[in-house]
Design goal:
Blueprint lengths: L22 H9 L6 E2 L36 H7 L4 E6 L5 E5 L10 E2 L8 E10 L8 H5 L3 E4 L1 H8 L14 E10 L22 E2 L3 E3 L5 E6 L1 E4 L15 H7 L1 E11 H10 L6 H11 L2
Helix pairs in contact: 6-7
Length: 294
């Protein structure tokens, strides 16, 4: 679900396809004007706004309430809903199997939906959370479109950041993260998971996921688990698929990129989580995350 302490992701084209030092630039040109269905404006905290220059503090942009301390940003789940897509977070059900929890408040009355109850070819829109070390990394094509990288479910954000959960110090793969919205065929939650190495997933043919992960570095176990995902844009070391936002990528690789939010400051997430009483329930974690996007 991140890049620190793990092999660095590389541009999603092999040296045979794009030679020279400007491979990333060539890849960007190769993709041309291909764009996400949605890509929200960048957000930053009020305490660090000088990092990106002064921003207007009009009431329509900045929130004055004490609950959330961050810049307002359009709601991507709402935009997706207007297009007929319901966005979900992947959580575990009572038996430890993957289930879907609606992201938007409009869908909360639905409760969670076990993925095993869906037809194999049913398409669902989920959120995948991707960590990286340097905020500037979010500009890379593989970070913008989740190409040949690993990511995780909502609970992974907390487990990754909090010390003595995934790692002793916490934030092993970096402090910054983006939220990606992808469409996935239900059957691929059983396709298995592989770690991407240097931007390549030679053993992966389609989107895949782990079983529920509950083990902590301390030897203790979570009462509910999280998931890791893999999203290849090629099979083996073959040519990269040009546009991961198109329907063909679903047929080839089992997933489609719909958009992203962020980057967000993982330490700000952790601070807000603690301020709200350190909840572990995913519906409460959705509320913590929403504060970063307000």
């Amino acid at each position: 679900g991140g890049s620190k302490g793990a092999p660095k992701a590389q541009p999603p084209c092999s040296a045979d396809e794009l030679d020279g030092k400007d491979a990333e630039t060539k890849m960007a040109k190769l993709l041309g004007t291909q764009s996400h269905l949605f890509d929200t404006p960048k957000t930053c905290s009020t305490r660090a706004s000088s990092e990106w220059g002064d921003m207007p503090r009009s009431p329509s942009v900045w929130s004055n309430d004490e609950e959330c301390m961050f810049v307002e940003a359009p709601s991507l789940p709402q935009q997706l809903g207007q297009k007929g897509f319901i966005a979900y977070d992947v959580i575990t059900d009572s038996s430890g199997e993957p289930a879907l929890l609606p992201v938007s408040s409009e869908g909360q009355d639905m409760g969670s939906l076990p993925i095993k109850d869906l037809p194999e070819d049913e398409l669902v829109t989920i959120r995948a959370f991707r960590f990286f070390e340097d905020r500037k990394d979010e500009k890379h094509i593989w970070e913008r479109e989740l190409r040949n990288v690993n990511s995780g479910s909502l609970l992974w954000v907390l487990v990754h950041m909090e010390p003595r959960m995934h790692s002793v110090a916490g934030s092993k793969y970096g402090d910054w993260f983006t939220v990606h919205y992808i469409r996935v065929k239900a059957k691929h939650f059983k396709s298995g998971y592989h770690m991407c190495e240097e931007g390549h997933c030679p053993l992966v043919k389609t989107f895949g996921a782990t079983a529920s992960v509950t083990h902590l570095v301390t030897g203790q176990h979570l009462s509910t688990g999280y998931f890791w995902f893999v999203s290849p844009d090629r099979q083996g070391r073959g040519p990269a698929h040009i546009d991961v936002t198109d329907d063909e990528n679903i047929e080839k690789h089992g997933w489609q990129h719909m958009g992203r939010e962020g980057p967000f400051d993982g330490n700000a997430f952790l601070q807000e989580w603690r301020r709200q009483g350190s909840p572990m329930d995913e519906s409460r974690l959705q509320g913590v995350l929403s504060c970063l996007a307000r």
